[in-house]
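Running this now, will post back.
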Amino acid sequence: MQSSTTPTLAIRRWWAIMLIVFITYSLAYLNRANFGFASTAGINSDLGISKGLSSLIGALFFLGYFFFQIPGAIYAERRSVKKLVFWSLVLWGGCAALTGMVSNIPSLMAIRFVLGVVEAAVMPAMLAFISNWFTKAERSRANTFLILGNPVTVLWMSVVLGYLVNSFGWQHMFIAEGLPAVVWAVIWWFIIKDSSRR
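Update: finished.
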């Protein structure tokens, strides 16, 4: 795909498209890293989770992430980034909210694994989305902005999650985190096209 080189579309790509990509990836990273905050806020003691089991629960996310990233990449490349990310946002927002309602360890383990499965598609989907909207010469710079989502998210995430945990507890932290992903899914659906050709 070769994007149009008109000034208007170039501005849209760098200010609108990359902002959308950045927000989406930041929300994904937020829900990926939130279990560590919950662990320090009392989820382990409340559910009776040992240190070893806590490590296993953390690893379950990455197990799902590992097995389903390639299928997610294939779907994003051959089908629709728009549909894939929409359903990923809805499902991982739901998983985050459900985590705040768990009362037993098996449910928590299942949710963390499913969350990894759902989020596995995000990075390949974002890379496919960038390749659909940017020329080959522009993609390395666009991918750099995408990757910058990690450290920037850590900065604001630490403040926001710290406040939520301290003020409301780990249950409400998870529920509060799930809502923005679902809201963003609706916004994503109405403002995104799979490429500049559609």
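The chain is about 85% helix and 0% strand. More later if anyone needs it.
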